Amino acid sequence: MSPPGGIATLPAMSEPAPPAAESPLDPEQRLAAEAEADSVLVLAGPGTGKTTTLVGRYVHLLEQGAAPARIFVSTFTARAAEELRGRIGARLETRGGDFDAERFRRMPIGTLHGMALRLLQRHPPPGCPRFRVFDEQACSRVIARHRLYLGDDVRKPTDVFGAYKDRLMSPAAALAEAKVRNDATLVEAAEAYGRYQRALAEEGGFDFGDLIMELVRGLEEDEAYRARIAGFFDHLLIDEYQDINPAQERMLRLLRSEGARLWAVGDDDQCLYAWRSADPAFILGFETAWPDPALFRLSRNYRSSATIVNAAGALIGANRRRHAKDQVPHSASRLALTIAGLDDDEDEADYVLRVVKGLSGRGMPWNEMAVLYRAGHVGSRIQIRLAEAGIPLVVRGAGEFWQLGPVRLTAGLARLLSNPQDMDARAMLGHGKRVDKLLQQAPEKIDADVPWPALCRQVGRLVSATARPPGEEGLQWRDLAFTAADLAAECGTVAAFIALMEEQRRSLRRAESGGDAVVLSTIHGAKGLEWSAVVVAGCEADLMPHESSPDLEEERRLMYVAATRAKRWLVLSFAAERRKAVAPSPYIAEMLSGLDEDQIRYHDPQSRARLHAGPPQPVKADGPLRLRPELKVSSGMRKGRAPSKRTRF
Ligand SMILES: Nc1ncnc2c1ncn2[C@@H]1O[C@H](COP(=O)(O)OP(=O)(O)OP(=O)(O)O)[C@@H](O)[C@H]1O
C-alpha cells in the first residue's frame, strides 16, 4: 500500500516542537493578565494562550497579595478544572516560597456545578433540603422507575430536563411556556419534568442542574445569605466563557454582588453548546452586561502552522454572529493541508490507519495524533480498523463503539437472550420505550435456541428494524446494529463475545491511563486540546453541517474547533459514499479559499476530482440500501484468533 499523499514529504518531525505549556507571557497576554478593570474579557482565538494567560492572572493576583481561597476559578469540565489546578500548582511551585500543595488542593478551582455543590454542602442556604447528588446513571434509574419517557425519544429525558434547569425554569414555568406555544410535545416534556422533580425530591436527590438552581434560589431569596456567600470571593476567573448558560450567568452575577472582580477568557467562535443552552450572546454582549468592562485581545496563535491558521480563519470568517479576530501565526510553517476523498467509510478507515502508521513510522508518538469527527458512527469504523491493527487508542466523547445506542441494544439483547441471568447485559440495554418494545417483541420474533451466530443475526435484524427517523439517521442506526451483530456472531460463542468486549474495554482503559495512544474523539470531546497531527474524518455535506442541526453557525464553529486542534499537520477526509452518495462538506472549500496552491495537497488525483465534482446523483428512492453486506471483522479485536472470513446477512 502506498503511503497517503503528503506523508512521504512531511517535514513535521524536523520542525521545532512548540514551546512548553507555561512559557512567559507575551506583552498582550501580560497586559490582559494584569488588567485592573472590574470586568475583564479576554477574547481571543484558539491557540492564542487564553488558558496560559488565566494561569498568569492567578499568579499575578497572588503577587498582588490576593488570598488563594478568595480566588474562584472555574472552567467547563471537571477534567479541564483538574488540568488547570495542576498547571497553576506547577507554576506556584516553581516560584518557591511557602507553597503548600496539600492546602492548594482545597482552593476553589472547579466547574461551576462543582462550585455550587461545594457551597451548598458547606453553607446550605435557608430552606435547602438535605440532598444526595444523583449522577447521570442515578437520574436514568429515576426516569426508568417512574417511566418518564418522552414520546420523542430522540433526545434523552435527562437532557430535556437539564435544558429547563440551564434556563432556571421550574416545571410550572416550563408548562406555562409550553401552553403559550400550544405545543403538545412541549407540554408532555414539561409535565414529565414536573414528575421527575417530584420523584427526585421524594428520594432526596439533586441532579447536576439542581445544584446551580438551588444555589441561585438561595442567593436570590435571602439577602443575608447572598452577602455572606458573595463576600467569600474577591476574584472570579472564568475559562471558556463562551459556553456559559443563563443559569450559570445568574450564579456569577450573584457571586460578584459584593464587589468581586470578574475576569473571563473565551472565544465566541468556539461556542459549541447551544444545545445545552450555552449562548454566544453572553460573550458578544459582555461589555454591556457587566460594570466597568475592559476587552483584551490576544492575536498571536502559538499552536498552529500558518497554513492551519489561514484555513481556519477563512472558514470562520463566513459566520456572521461573531467578533472578528485577527490571528498572527507564531509559526510561519506553510506545511500543506491534506485533502483525502475516499471511496467509502471502509476506505476512509484504511486511509486513517495508513496515516497514523506512517506518522508513527516517522517517529511521532501515538499521543500526538487524533482523529476527530462530528458524529460517533464515523469514528466507529475507524475505531474498529485501528483496534484490529493493534494501534493503541483512546476514545473520548460519546463515541466508544460499544457505547453507541444500536450497538448496546444489539450486544445487550443477544447476550440477554442467550442468558437471561446476565445482569450486565440488562444494564447495557438501558431503559426507554424502544428497549421496552424490543424486550416485548424478542420472545415472539427471535428463536433463542439457535446457535450464537444465528441468534446474533436475528437480533441485529430486530434492532435494525427499530431505526428511525427515515433517512440517514435510520441508515446509520441499522448499519451499526448490523456491525455489532456481525462482530458478535464472528466470535462463535457468547463466552468468546463477552471476552472480546472485556478485552477491548481493558485495552481502552490501559491506553487512557498509559497516555501514549491515538485519540479518537467527537469534536465536542476535543475542546481545549491540541495534537501535532489531526485527521478530521467524515467531512461530508450531510455531516458537516449535520443535516439535523438547526444552527448552521454552530456547525461551522464545530469544524473550526476540529481544525484548530492541529499544531502542524491537518487532514480533512471525506467519503464519496457512506451508504449513499454524498458530496464533500462545503467547509472544505471555505478553508481552501484561505490558502495558496502550495498549501494544499490532495491525497490522490481522485481526491481533487471528487472535491470539485458537482453534487452526487440522488439515490433512487426504491434502490437497495447498502446495509453492510460485508464487514471485515477485526482480527486484532478478537485476540488470538485468525482473521475471519466475511460475514453476510
Ligand atoms: N506566550 C507564549 N509563548 C509560547 N507559547 C505559548 C505562549 N502562550 C501559549 N503558548 C502555547 O500555545 C498553546 C495554546 O495555549 P492555550 O492552550 O493556553 O491556548 P488557548 O487559547 O486556551 O486555546 P483553545 O482556545 O484552543 O483552548 C500551548 O501549547 C501553549 O503552551
UniProtKB/TrEMBL annotation:
Family, similarity comment: Belongs to the helicase family. UvrD subfamily.
Highest rank taxon of the organism: Bacteria
UvrD-like helicase ATP-binding domain location: 23-305
Species in which this protein is naturally found: Paramagnetospirillum magneticum (strain ATCC 700264 / AMB-1)
Catalytic activity line of the entry: ATP + H2O = ADP + phosphate + H(+); Couples ATP hydrolysis with the unwinding of duplex DNA by translocating in the 3'-5' direction
Keyword ATP-binding: yes
EC id: 5.6.2.4
Molecular function via GO: 3'-5' DNA helicase activity; ATP binding; ATP hydrolysis activity; DNA binding
Name this protein carries in UniProt: DNA 3'-5' helicase
Gene3D superfamilies: 1.10.10.160, P-loop containing nucleotide triphosphate hydrolases (3.40.50.300), PCRA, domain 4 (1.10.486.10)
Assigned keywords, A-Z: ATP-binding, Helicase, Hydrolase, Isomerase, Nucleotide-binding
CDD domains: DEXQc_UvrD
